Amino acid sequence: MTNNTLFDQEDPFGLPPAPEKTKPNAPPEYTVSELSHKLKRVIEDGFSFVRVRGEVSKVTVAKSGHLYTALKDDAAVLDAICWKGTVGSLGLKPEEGMEVVCTGRLTTYPGRSNYQLIIETMELAGQGALLKMLEERKKKLAAEGLFDPARKKPIPFLPNVIGVITSPTGAVIRDIMHRLDERFPRRVLLWPVMVQGQGAAAQVAAAIAGFNAIPKDSQLRPDVLIVARGGGSLEDLMPFNDEIVVRAAAASKIPLISAVGHETDTTLIDYASDLRAPTPTAAAEKAVPVRAEIRAWVLECQKRMFVSAQRLMQQHQTHLQGLGRGLGDPKRLLEHSMQKLDSLSGRLDMGLQSWLDRRTAQVNQLAAKISLSALRQKIGDAERHIRNFAERLVNTEGKILKDRQQKLANLSALLESLSFKGVLARGYSVVKDAKGNIVSSVKQAVAEKDVLIVFHDGEAEATVKKQV
User: Which of 45-54, 376-385, 449-458 has the lowest mean pLDDT?
Assistant: First the structure.
């Protein structure tokens, strides 16, 4: 092998020639954005509809209303997004740890070079996950006191109006009406709602709130509410496990009876309601009594009252008869009393005359003791006594008045010596500004310039030129 074959003679360092920039069999060249968009199209075309099962993780709701979360299993994590318009129609509220099955499409987010699932529907994965979610929700609501027995209201004995919240086309409303007609017909107001499926929970909660919004003085306001539906699977009864329905039942001011499913079915509204009925028919039985039984009870009470009244009257009659036998002849008792009355009347006349005689004798004795000369002497003594007091009063009044005048004159002289004019008379004066305020300093006088000087015998205007 020669040197010519080993080295490129055109390169002074003997390096092999550089490869060409492009070759016919080289892959195409992409920018990062071009490759990201191409991957996005490939993934969206290949996974435009998928169902993914996994455990919910990191649930976040943005201010825009979009929901961001992730689905995970033992080996992988898949980011997921549910747009704001779809969140309200999911039918359940995603919570961390909840196992769900999501339906949607895969896409990519080039800004972070990752792929994610756009969720369109979400449902719990299996009955076990449903029961787990319900148990956790039950504990949460119980901790808030929504199931506290102390807050439950009594069911009225005989309501005038019964509000029923159920489907208008099912057998439930017919069973309730039939049972009410058999026991005690009452006025029934039906609020038609969906009892299963998407939107059912919101309708039931709105119906409870709507009945409570009727004014209390309205004849249409129910005295008791019945929330009812027939039996079904756990998934069918899920609207009555929804948190908004449970809170609406707990907040109801009207007593509420829950009758959801069969006797073995239990939903969360049963814990929040004031009374739970095993079936809708049983709810009607608990809402009203049996009219025939009430009528029989009233008749029985009437009969017992009549018998008791008769027995009481007989007892009083027997008692009066016994008292009458022991009383004796009333005429004889009156004879004794009349004789006693006559005796007392005679003694009264005699006593009154005797009293008048004694009082007359006393007056005569007092009249004999009265003497005109003695009376005149007492009057003269009284007049002299009064004149004496009058003279003393006049002398005392003059002396007091003179003392008060002398004291007033002394105070006047003292006041005059201490008065404002007295000070001015001793050669002092007062300086005032144009507003009549006293000028108390040289600076203030210079600032005012035009001032008024007050003497004891008048006032004079002056102008201040400068401070000496």
Answer: 449-458
**For residues 294 and 283, what is the distance between their CA atoms, to the nearest angstrom?**
19
pLDDT tens-digit series, residues 148-173: 999 999 999 999 999 999 999 888 99
Instruction: Evaluate if residue 330 carries a pLDDT over 80.
Output: no
DSSP summary character for residue 154? P
83: tokens are 């747009």
| Plot region of 196 (φ>0 → left; ψ -120 to 50 → alpha; else → beta) | beta
Residues 6+ apart with CB under 8 A from 291: 183, 184, 185
In eight-state DSSP terms, residue 191 is: E
Question: Over 60: is that where the pLDDT of 6 sits?
Answer: no
Q: Residue 349 pLDDT more than 90?
A: no
Chain centroid to CA 350? 83
pLDDT of amino acid 7: 45
β pairing state of 256-260 and 275-276 = parallel
Long-range contacts of 35-40 (CB under 8 A, 24+ apart): 36/108, 36/110, 36/113, 37/110, 39/108, 40/107, 40/108, 40/110
**Which token pair is 85?**
């318009």
One-letter amino acid for residue 378 of the chain: K
Phi, psi of 170 (to 5 degrees): -85, 175
Residues 236-287 pLDDT 10s: 888 898 899 999 999 999 999 999 988 787 889 999 999 999 999 999 999 9
- The DSSP string of 216-280 is TT-TTS-SEEEEEE----TTTTGGGGSHHHHHHHHH-SS-EEEEESSTT---HHHHHSSEE-SSH
How far is Cα 459 from Cα 448, in angstroms, rounded to an integer? 17
Is 458's pLDDT higher than 90? no
3-state SS string for 370-386: CCHHHHHHHHHHHHHHH
Torsion sign (Cα): 442, 445, 447, 449: negative
pLDDT at 21 over 60: no
Distances (CA, A) of 114 to 39, 40, 74: 10, 10, 19
Task: Give which of 93, 88, 123, 121 is closest to 105, Cα–Cα.
Answer: 121
Instruction: Render the burial of 189-206: b for 16+ CB within 10 Å, e for the rest.
Output: ebbebbbbeeebbbbbbb
